[in-house]
Amino acid sequence: MAHGEDSATAAARGGLPRHVAIVMDGNGRWARRRGLPRSAGHRAGVQSVRCVVEASLRRGIEALTLFAFSSENWRRPRQEVGLLMELFLTTLQREVQRLHEQGVRLRFIGDRAAFAPKLRARIAEAEALTAGNATLHLNIAANYGGRWDIAQAARRIAEEAAAGRLDPVAVDADRFGRHLCLADLPEPDLLIRTGGEQRISNFLLWQIAYTELYFTDLLWPDFDERAYDEALAWYAGRERRFGALPSSAEGGRANDA
Ligand code: FPP
């Protein structure tokens, strides 16, 4: 449930999240278990990306945000980083027209300054082509970090204040949040992490304050439509309170968010 949506509206949506965020983990282990190079795991991971995009479109989910490459992933061997960049480029080239026809708006979040000019150009073209679409907002977090996001928002606010366009006293959570990535979308309702780890790994830190967290041991290339449906069914059974009392109990604890 996003800002401004009451629980009756959420119920009418059949407990479907408006915005799903995913940490796609486990490609390397998937490949190792098969005696394959890590690159094979990442390639198989692209199939799972396709699967969740298609499933999200069919189910009417409004936004899907995928963690494809964190700011920390540069620490991986140069060869693996190169392969991932190549995969982003080829996948973009191959898929963008079809995504556009399906009404997908594609956006990249993260610091793209470090990417090769060719990849930056393809990203800009894909974003421009799909800018008018709204069936599904597909956000790819690449060279993204939640702390980077918060820091870039703080820098922009400081610049506005230094230029005299903003009174520092007027800076509250709402105004701050407007400078973060994806500020125009509802905050994620559901965050899925595959691969067995139970941590956030510097993904959307601010935006997931009230997000339901779902962890599965499945490795990302094994995450198929059925696994996605299980996560969605789990979400549908959650009662979201946003710091309020449970709807059924009078005597709940007010701080129990
Ligand atoms: C984590 O698995 C996965 C990544 C760092 C890359 C994710 C990229 C893709 C799924 C493919 C391309 C995506 C798009 C959007 C085209 P890992 O390598 O950390 O796995 P491990 O923990 O088993 O080693």
Structure description:
With 257 residues, the chain is of the alpha/beta class. Helices cover 42% and strands 14% of the residues. It is built from 8 helices and 6 strands, in the order H-E-H-H-E-H-E-H-E-H-H-E-E-H. It has helices at 7-12, 27-33, 38-59, 78-101, 117-130, 146-162, 173-177, 225-236, and strands spanning 19-23, 63-70, 104-109, 136-144, 190-193, 212-215. Strand 3 (104-109), helix 5 and strand 4 (136-144) form a beta-alpha-beta unit. The radius of gyration is 19 Å and the shape is globular. 30% of the residues are buried. Residues 24-29, 42, 45-46, 49, 66, 68, 73, 84, 87-88, 91, 140, 195, 220 line the site of farnesyl diphosphate. Farnesyl diphosphate binds at residues 24-29, 42, 45-46, 49, 66, 68, 73, 84, 87-88, 91, 140, 195, 220.
* Strand adjacency order, main sheet: 3-4-2-1-5-6
Mean pLDDT: 91
Work out the strand percent: 5-15%
Measured on Cα atoms, how large is the radius of gyration? 19 Å
Structural class determined from secondary elements? alpha/beta
What is the CATH topology? Undecaprenyl pyrophosphate synthetase
- The SSE order reads HEHHEHEHEHHEEH
Write down the domain tally: 1
Q: Termini distance? A: 14 Å
- Low-confidence runs of at least 5 consecutive residues: 251-256
Q: How many helix segments?
A: 8
* Total beta strands: 6
